[in-house]
Amino acid sequence: MKEKTAAIIVAAGRGSRMGTKIQKQYLKLLGKPILAYTLEAFEKSETDEIILVVGEGEEDYVTREIIRPYGISRVTRVVAGGKERYESVWNGLQAVKEGIFPEEKNECFVLIHDGARAFITPEQINFCIGQVREHRACVMGMPVKDTIKVVDSQEYTVSTPDRSTLWQMQTPQCFELTEISSAYRKMFQSGAEKVTDDAMVMESFGERPVKMIRGSYDNIKVTTPEDLILGEAILKEKINIQN
Questions:
Q1: CA-to-CA distance for 44 and 51, rounded, in angstroms?
Q2: What are the tens digits of pLDDT across the range 84-95?
Q3: How far apart are CA 136 and CA 129, in angstroms?
Q4: What is the mean pLDDT of residues 2-28?
């Protein structure tokens, strides 16, 4: 039985912390939109299809300016996202489900990835596919390097958690479609609002533990102007290695 693997690329954010009029996923690094790097990595991976979730009204723009010019053939649908990330992910999950014929009985796995996390590699994506088939719920991340402090509302330190148990979360975050959809449905029914990632949804409303898998410290999300400088350095290093 061949399982289907779909990637949900979430690129509906406004990017207020970047401080630019253009959404961060459309900014260019070395002459190419950030989102194009992300899509190219998944295009070269073993994923069967890509669902791209963008801001409402941007569907035609990304098709015209990114998908077609950069030869992205595995995007099967471009759908509008919501105001919050979890709403955009839900719209992506529904798009995957709509693309599955009722008579299809094979399992479907989804890799949920931030569109502005442009430095993921096809090899890392394929690793995620293998891991989610084994564990059914796994998230890419890396152990934190720095000491972390818990602070109170006045920003005084309260405690210092054991650094050896702390990881910084990345994407892809990978799940079996039916299980993560069920967890999201329960989350909406509960009225929960402070949900920061898909692993938290599974932890709080799912029925399966989430396995952490190692990614790369290069797998950063472009969020602030400083990230653009780091991102260019990462890309230049990759180019040097390839040459």
A1: 15
A2: 999 999 999 999
A3: 10
A4: 80
For residue 172, say if its preceding peptide bond is cis, omega within 30 degrees of 0: yes
Length of the chain: 243
Of 217, 214, 218, the residue nearest 237 (C-alpha): 218
Contact, 100 vs 108, CB < 8 A?
yes
Q: What's the maximum distance between 2 C-alpha atoms anywhere in the chain?
A: 57
What are 118-132's pLDDT values in tens digits? 999 999 999 999 999
Share the mean pLDDT of the chain.
93
Segments in the chain forming alpha helices (H): 34-43, 59-62, 85-98, 122-135, 177-190, 198-205, 225-242
**Residue listed under structure tokens 């479907």:** 108
Residue that is written with structure tokens 């070395």 in the block = 30
Instruction: Spell out a b/e string for 62-90, using b for 16 or more CB atoms within 10 Å of the CB, else e.
Output: bbeebbeeeebebbebbbebeeebbebbb
Residue type, 145: K
Please state at what angle helix 177-190 crosses helix 198-205, rounded to 10 degrees: 80
Reported as a single tens digit per residue, the pLDDT across 216-230 is 999 999 998 999 999
Token pair for residue 83?
Answer: 């105001």
CB 47 within 8 Å of CB 124: no
